[in-house]
Amino acid sequence: MLIPPASQVSAIARDGPMESPRAAAGRDTEADHAAVEAARAGDRAAFARLHERFAPMVHGILLAHAGPREADDLVQEVFLRAMRSIGTLRDAAAVGGWLAAIARNTAASAARAGPGPAPLSNAPEPAARPRGDALTTEDVMARIRELPEAYRETLLLRLAEGMPGPRIAERLGLTEGSVRVNLSRGMKLLRQRLGWEDGP
């Protein structure tokens, strides 16, 4: 998991020029449907394709709920649960949302089972900080985890996993408009948490 230097956080959160993400999303959706149907029939290679395609999304969601090391470990747990229960997925088009729900449930189970990162809800508001790379990845991650779930998930999928907005929407089963709103509001809150409210 690699988050860019803090000085690049604002720039990378905006979707820059990408190669036709909507056209790619359409092809991806058809491939996902075919892989789900084959995996339901017991095709392990098809399930491996789902793993390859959705692992970044699952990892990003887990990062919103757990530390980086724990998130890395939990990715495999999510896909083991999914493999055991893929027969219960009725709508192949909902595979992204279904895997996202398993990821959230897995993270919640892990948090109940043992101590995770210390709660940040009572953390003091940060003082104004210098811009640039003085902030560490841990600083940025800690502030992201203080945000509401919808914002922290979309921010981490964008910042940590490098997914453009249309891909996030397609993977999570959201509208592109709602992802844009979550990214915009999440970045605004993150800038406040980082003490960057006073600048462009």
Descriptive account of the structure:
This protein has 9 helices and no strands. It has a single domain (21-113, 136-193), classed as Rna Polymerase Sigma Factor, Chain: A (Orthogonal Bundle). It has helices spanning 9-13, 21-40, 44-63, 68-85, 95-113, 137-144, 149-159, 165-172, 176-193. 64% of the residues lie in helices and 0% in strands. It starts with 8 loop residues before the first helix and ends in a 7-residue tail after the last helix. Helix 2 (21-40) packs across helix 3, helix 3 (44-63) runs antiparallel to helix 4 (68-85) and helix 7 crosses helix 9 (176-193). With 200 residues, the chain is mainly alpha-helical.
What is the total tally of β strands? 0
Query: How many domains, as an integer?
Result: 1
CATH class: Mainly Alpha
Categorize the overall geometry.
globular
Proportion of beta-strand residues: under 5%
Report the major sheet.
Answer: none
Structural class: mainly alpha
How much is the average pLDDT? 80
List low-confidence stretches.
4-19, 116-130
CATH H level: which superfamily? RNA polymerase sigma factor, region 2, helix turn helix motif
CATH architecture designation:
Orthogonal Bundle
Q: DSSP helix count?
A: 9
Secondary-structure element series: HHHHHHHHH
Report helical residue fraction.
Answer: 55-70%
- And the CATH topology? Rna Polymerase Sigma Factor, Chain: A
Rg calc: 17 Å
- Spatial separation of the terminal alpha carbons: 27 Å
